[in-house]
Design a protein that fits this description.
two-stranded antiparallel sheet, Spore Coat Polysaccharide Biosynthesis Protein SpsA, Chain A, alpha/beta
């Protein structure tokens, strides 16, 4: 905990969403418990690997919800509804909490009543930072990033979208935060109706950020909190399906938030063609990258594209 920040009266509740990731879920909950969490909820989405039973044995005080595979947003909403604390941390199962992560996130929200959500510094297992706190791109930036980030990751569109020039050691306000680990103020989350369940997987975090800011709330990146994200544990073996969910999420986001004029509405069929091309090229690129031993595949991160 930062020396100039008061210790919060209570640490957040933690909601972990899991699908066929028993080992990951157990390790995530254990790291949350070690970080001080007392109120734990696991939302298991139709796992066939015994996740729910294993968690009940390992964490007998945790609430375990068993649902069909309803998608991340709907599952997270159900988990939040079973908690009681003013701040709730929503997490993927493939996340490990640092010792001070929950306290830092809770303290940041406690000291700024205008904040709806705070996101931690997210790193890969080797310590490389993930771009987990970003700005909402305009259409030009989104297209430039989507076309260039694989062949030229340091292009100006990607740098702008991922805020790569921002100091990673300094707190800042952002447009949206990755749903891989997200601390939300219950009041704000309820105010906007939680995650939109129309997104099955991916982009629901971007949509949430837009709706929170439209409702007058703000979002912040908190580097004092740190988590490790192993990326894509439940989707690594289902890449084509995962990318299709991602593309559908982007299409829904375009229709809900960007297609506001007659011209942008007319562009939607072209956007869908572009998304289909993105899925196909992503699958080809990932196979090539895997053969070359590339360190990280960013398509497994929330939000997007990548």
């Amino acid at each position: 905990m930062s020396p100039d920040r008061a210790v919060p009266d209570e640490l957040p509740a933690v909601v972990v969403v899991s699908h066929d990731t028993r080992g990951e879920a157990l390790a995530c909950l254990a790291s949350a418990r070690a970080a001080g969490a007392e109120e734990l909820v696991l939302v298991d989405c139709g796992s066939r690997d015994g996740t729910a039973e294993a968690v009940r044995r390992a964490e007998p005080d945790a609430v375990v919800l068993e649902l069909t595979n309803v998608g991340f947003g709907r599952a997270a909403n159900a988990g939040v509804a079973r908690t009681t604390r003013a701040v709730v941390v929503i997490s993927n199962a493939d996340v490990r909490f640092g010792a001070d992560a929950l306290g830092e996130l809770s303290a940041r929200l406690a000291t700024d009543p205008g904040l709806a959500a705070a996101g931690p510094a997210v790193v890969y297992p080797d310590g490389t930072p993930q771009a987990s706190a970003r700005r909402l791109p305009d259409l030009t930036t989104a297209v430039g990033h989507g076309l260039l980030y694989r062949v030229h990751p340091d292009n100006r569109f990607t740098r702008r979208y991922r805020q790569l020039d921002a100091d990673p050691s300094r707190a800042r306000e952002v447009d949206w935060l990755s749903g891989c680990t997200l601390a939300v103020r219950r009041e704000a989350f309820t105010d906007v109706g939680g995650f939109d369940p129309g997104y099955f997987l991916y982009v629901e975090d971007v949509d949430l950020g837009v709706r929170l800011r439209r409702a007058g709330w703000r979002l912040a990146f908190e580097p004092g909190a740190r988590v490790v994200h192993r990326v894509g544990a439940s989707t690594r073996q289902r890449r084509a399906r995962s990318l299709l969910h991602h593309a559908r999420g982007l299409d829904r986001f375009y229709g809900r938030h960007l297609a506001r004029s007659p011209g942008t509405r007319l562009l939607r069929p072209l956007v869908r063609v572009g998304l289909a091309g993105w899925v196909l090229t992503s699958l080809v690129w990932e196979r090539v990258a895997a053969r070359r031993g590339r360190a990280h595949s960013t398509t497994g991160e929330r939000g997007g594209p990548a």
